[in-house]
Write a structure and sequence with these properties.
The structure is a homotetramer. The first copy, chain A, has 11 helices and 11 strands. Chain A folds into 2 domains: about 5-145 and about 265-310, Rossmann fold; about 145-260, Rossmann fold (3-Layer(aba) Sandwich), CATH 3.40.50.460. The termini of chain A are far apart. Chain A is an alpha/beta fold and about 325 residues long. Chains in contact: A-B, A-C, B-D, C-D. At the A-B interface, helix 1, helix 5, helix 6, helix 9 and helix 11 of A face helix 1, helix 5, helix 6, helix 9 and helix 11 of B. Chains A, B, C, D: This is ATP-dependent 6-phosphofructokinase.
């Protein structure tokens, strides 16, 4: 491949997600395979501004495919939101001889790269790394599958104690604006109800549903709540109080799963996805492309313009909401 | 829905796979939701011939979504291969008032249902339950995703000891005719080589690759081998001996993962897939369909005629073979 | 063995813990082995008062050794605290022909049995089932080892994201009065600080320690806090605010692990312990003993009078506190 | 502490086991705490002879407490069995200024250290790192608890498929000379029979037991076999053939768990044990002790002369054999 690109910089940015290390490894090894240089940038845009770089070769990324987090670290960087910050970052990349970038992160990180490219004309390809699955242009974001399994395993454990005591649990899972984790993990964990921002269940229907569940002889109940859900007008702690007042038959508990959802060894799916996206990102750069995000559609790795990807969310799956309703009969 | 179907029989057949219980649960609960009866058939076609049935309601399938195996048991049944056996089975279903069937199993099980339907005109829908992912008409068979994670977690453990001792491991995984598990889990586990029936690597190229790997300073090597692979003309034990003779620099070990690959709590993916396929199967029957298999394509649950599904295998993914080659630089 | 005991009742009471099912199984099978009857009592003392019983034989407890929770359910029962409630319970046992009891639970449950025995002279043996490890007379309570692993695995995941972002996490674990889970899991997870009720660290020393940790270049910090700890005068949320004010260099997060700590498949240790304690409990009853609790000391299953066991807690291990201090250098 | 020891060398030797990294970390950090130097020796005695050393400080061992294997690598070293080899090793240590050693490994590794000390008078303390639990002087060797859980989790998976198909599985686990893994994991996994070198069951009794098991309606059977067991005169593959001939009612399968038993993240127990033993080893050296092995007895970390530790094995637990017999009724 006769490309003018001789050195690619790779970094992770924003919230971390399982599979980021696997994606870095794939970028690094594809560079090695294509016989171009690869430079790791620590702490995302912050490290770019500081020139906190490390040369990476195929052996630098041994034994990281199965590690959660990101060994290049991540950070949020207010300074990069200013033209001055971005100029500093560009100067650092110039000094280091970086011709192109692979950015691994969520929609904020991709937007940053898009602006950076508009100003400084440095080619880049994005890899959607976030557990939230909220990026348009890919069926799965990197880390989503792992997070689902982490949540489902935690709820399996909670179910043990819930069904030993005839209890009702509100389990809050991540998802500030979207309910993908809640809906999928809720169905996977056999939750009795699932509260997501996209679907207005309402407090009354929740109470009705819990009453019916009890009447049908269910020994315990799990309600999965997306952290961003406000369709009931209440957070999980308020929901607990409300249900205890209005349905005193239940002994109610709350569990907020929190940041453990971001960690852990990635699943096979996320490792393979990361590897394929990493290869695609480097290949696209070498083909002269820029401003695209790698994504998966059916079983194909595809490219979507970042400008489109950051505009919209993947829609919640109406059919899966229906499956959930049927399963909780 | 005005359908003539009043009672659906559900059973699992052939080798078991994680997610079968979740699929049974989905079939049972969809029947309850649609207000029709559901009858569980134990031990597949064998139990059908014996009339080994159990009525199932929504509560019968509490707390099984996360259990491996199949609580309806499974069996291979030579008698069902004879017209007399199938007649007995049909008579039993008639006595029990079963109008339609949902069969959960691999291609052998689906073929059986197809013949049964041709002879006795009983409607059926199939759900592809097998870890091998070798059925045409679905991107993922039920249990494949769980098996991949089981394999990858086992190889992660083997990697610990391999890299502590500079060892080479041949790890045999399931896949009698196809290399899907080997290829995906091999990429996910960061295997140095992957031997699958679909891709003739040859012994010489394997040796060359191992030599280069050693030369590049890799501290250990994992070669994943599909059990059905004969492209080297050798099984894993013979490969060990051959490499020890021709590459004495390596301390070689063999690990055959075996039947643990069929068990374990299903992943979130397999639980959701099972739930969606179960709903689809019952709905299809109530819509008057027969002879189809539920499958997933991108994110849609689709129906494929069983006659087509059992004809061919899902092809191995050439792009993933390429990704694997690049990753092992 | 010539004992007058012909039928043993077994039940679980109070908070559930992993290994309770394995203990029930062991009691049931030992009864079968000794050729005496075994009656399961649902929902602890509540089910005893209600006569909610089920005969159990060796096959009733197939495939439960690896299940969390308790299939006999558990409950707290205010009525049993009254002489009238206990009279009802005794009458139910008499009607059912129960000669002796095995109670599996924490110190409250054992105290109940002790009073019951004093009033009605029914022989009983206790098995210490609680994740808190707070019962005198046994090195390990049933479920403690499993809970430690659940906590350590969760913190391993949190560490991934903590070290990707240079964050400080306060992780609250169970232990209302005692710090056994916090101390052991804290050492196991490599926590930077551990706050337990038994050891007054104080806020100032915590701040100092975090400052030093930062100065030594630690990229992230985990502070494990027993839920019952008030040595700092603050709960985890107040600690977060306090540290953010006084050590603004840290980006602080809170994670309350909650009830998932009570569930999950028991570890091998807890399964073996449950099996041994179950055998011991039945054997002790058949030898005419009563009012003892089975416990483990070194590798021996021993008996301690319940009157002693419920008086005191196992002391926190000073040497392990020292190990923790050394490890966090 | 006024000791003449200024620099301690630490290494792992022989087969690796989970917890070795945690033990190295504990040795390194205790040295840092005591303000003495610590030198890592790669590849055990082999690296000692080669002078393959690395200085280690408190930060060198960040984030390894939860990693399987040993980052210092391990090896078996024939040259160290010769006086010349040991002389070379001693010279290397002298040049590097190493005053004392901590050796982490099995009985072969401890024997090597004992001879080395006799010849060259270099103080050492041993830490028993092996999954086999076959060293006298400690209730638990490092890695044993983790290996038990790995085995039990694998058999749980095998049980899923065994009970779906009414199958009999022979599962071979590690233990060349001793049956500790087989006995404990067998009880933990609810195995129907357990074959260990220490207890001569004999083929006839095995057949009888399997017949009775079938007669009692067990739907599946797991027989756990220690790899070193020859009490039946047959290995697992021969056992399979024998049972298929003499008990054709069974569909028999074999599973050899192999090297995955040596890997994986250590359990909380092994991490805490490693931390305590590491502290003890350094403290003992600084107190002028040599030739001891750290061990655990009840909850105390104790020292046993290596000369005694390597003489005998921990005896198999007769009471646990009896528990196993009762459980398989």
């Amino acid at each position: 491949m006769s490309s003018s690109i001789k050195k690619i910089g790779v970094f992770t940015s924003g919230g971390d997600s399982p599979g980021m290390n696997a994606a870095i490894r794939a970028v690094v090894r594809t560079c090695a395979y294509m016989e171009i240089d690869c430079l790791g940038i620590y702490r995302g845009y912050e490290g770019m501004i500081d020139g906190d770089f490390i040369p990476l070769n195929a052996r630098s990324v041994n034994n990281i495919i199965n590690k959660g987090g990101t060994f290049l670290k991540s950070a949020r960087c207010p300074e990069f939101r200013t033209p001055e910050g971005r100029q500093k970052a560009f100067d650092q990349l110039q000094s280091a001889g970086v011709d192109a970038l692979v950015v691994i992160g969520g929609d904020g990180s991709l937007s940053g790269a898009e602006i950076f490219h508009a100003e400084h004309n440095i080619p880049y390809i994005g890899i959607p790394g976030t557990i939230d699955n909220d990026i348009f242009g890919t069926r799965y974001t990197l880390g989503f599958d792992t997070a689902l399994n982490t949540v489902v395993e935690a709820i399996d454990k909670i179910r043990d104690t819930a069904s030993s005591h005839h209890r009702l649990f509100f389990v809050e899972v991540m998802g500030r604006d979207v309910g993908h984790i809640a809906l999928n993990a809720g169905v996977g964990a056999g939750a009795e109800e699932i509260l997501i921002p996209e679907e207005d269940l309402g407090l009354d229907r929740l109470l009705d549903s819990l009453k019916r569940s009890k009447a049908r002889g269910k020994s315990s109940s799990i309600v999965v709540v997306a952290e961003g859900d406000r369709t009931t007008g209440k957070n999980v702690y308020e929901l607990k109080e409300y249900v205890e007042q209005h349905l005193p038959v239940y002994d109610v508990r709350v569990c907020v799963l929190g940041h453990m959802q971001r960690g852990g060894a990635p699943t096979c799916f996320d490792r393979v996805l990361a590897s394929r996206m990493g290869v695609k990102a480097v290949e696209a750069l070498l083909e002269g492309k820029t401003g695209f995000m790698a994504g998966i559609r059916d079983n194909d790795i595809i490219l979507t313009p970042v400008s489109e990807a950051i505009k919209g969310h993947t829609k919640i799956d109406k059919e899966l909401i229906r499956v959930s309703d049927i399963m909780t009969i």
